[in-house]
Amino acid sequence: MSYLSLARKYRPRQFDEIVGQSHIATTLKNAITMDMSAHAYLFAGSRGVGKTSTARILAKSLNCEKGPSPRPCGKCVSCIEITRGTSMDVIEIDGASNRGIDEIRNLKENIKFASVHGKFRIYIIDEVHMLTPEAFNALLKTLEEPPLHVKFIFATTQPHKIPSTIISRCQHFDFKKISIKNIVEKLRDIKKKEKIVVEDEAMFLMARSADGSLRDAEVIFDQLLSFTKGKITAGDVTKVLGLMEQGILFELADCLMNDEKEKILKIIDALVNGGKDPVFVASCVIEHFRNIMAVKVTKDKERILTAVSDEDYRKLKDQARNLTLDDILYITHSLSAAIDFMKKTPLSKIPLEITLIKLAGKNRLISIKEISDRLSDVEAVLKNKTFGESKTQSYANEVAPASRDEEVVVPAAPGEENIAPAMPMEEIAAEKDILLFQKVKDSWTKILNFVKSKKMSIGTFLAEAVLLKVNDNILAVGFGAHNSLHRESLEINTNKKFVEEAIKSVTGEDMKLTFKSVEGQAKSEPAVSAGEAVEIDSVSTGRPGKIEPIVESAVDMFDGRIVDIRKVSEKGR
Fold first, then answer.
1. Cα–Cα distance measured from residue 42 to residue 124, given in angstroms and rounded to the nearest whole number
2. Residues of the chain with pLDDT under 50
């Protein structure tokens, strides 16, 4: 006897045997019991979820000699012929091969004939969405009012391609993908009946690879039976299907968390040399971190997680403790972007390596909320210090001696005994001036654009300025010697007030302006470019020169000032 594949051998023969579609099985059984079966059904769903099997069971239930019955006997002539696919009362049509109007005309001619054994002539049209628009139109009238002895059952994987006029004439059932848990249970049942030794992790891998299709899982099981002669292990499934081993994914995740860059390169090199596609590797890593995220946000292992064993679940929980949600989201986002790039270049291994190395060298991410909270804390501390200083200073003025040369010990003001010593007023004022200057500097482009939108001439003059500093709420703005006309124009009282109002409108700060001459600036250079400002204390020599960006960075880094600019002769280099 020829070998019968597992998918055919263990095909469901009763409604109760249908896996993962209990809502549909219950509805059809109740309809048959109450003699309320429809004249046309539409079964929609992805491959291997039981559409055709359900159609055959429904046909047997309607044509069984003891029926119509929700539990066909399976022993009568009609049931046996339908099971074998030889029944003259149940006609299965491939919609892809019989999609034209001529085939539908032949069908309409044949439906007038009575059934041979059963009560109904049942037409099962698979992949019905492949019919042409003309064929659908020819079927409309017959589908709406067929003879009493005719039933139609349509099956499709793409219901959106079926005209709404057809769908409205059918009872529509959506077949969902079968859960990994249900597929594993079915595989265990097959394993028991076939007396095969299979590791639990191997069944998890087969179920996950099937992507919700029980038939695919059974085909994979068949393939592994041919590959192995005894026990089927997880390694066998990984080898036959070309999957990523879970151990490697855990190892890669550990390397990312422990900053083991060299080990990452070795793992990727071994995977790619072993035939793994870099895009596939990146996708598997993303799925692994998705599982880590699921472990972190929920305890519902069965519903949320992709198929994992109990041991892998424990490992995922261990890794989840060392990662924040922001870390996980950043890793998955970076790898997704890398996949897009890998698909556009033949050197797909390199973007994967670079991305993983970058992720390994990344310290813990700080969320925007955490940064905002820290800034709020700093702002509160500064306000408290300023408030404490003002109260203490006010009290000190009442007891201060006339002579400024004496060292004064100011007693604590009433109610202030436990307040920490406040910052000196000079330091607070200086700190406020620095923050204010930085605020103006960051908003300088907006200020210039605002001024230009109102008065282009004033905006043009102001664009040549260089921001110097803020002192006691007074912003000092400098102009080179060659821009004296610009400075004089802006010093006119009306123009000056206009710029002050513009600064207030953009920054919200009420500031005064003072204009100064800045020597040592080359005539060919603008004093300031849009969005850029340089603080200059003094240039004492008066010689023209250009401040290099690296010098500006050094000044900012070490809180210094430029004292002199000297040109080094070629001979002295």
1. 10
2. 395-396, 398-422, 521-545, 569-573
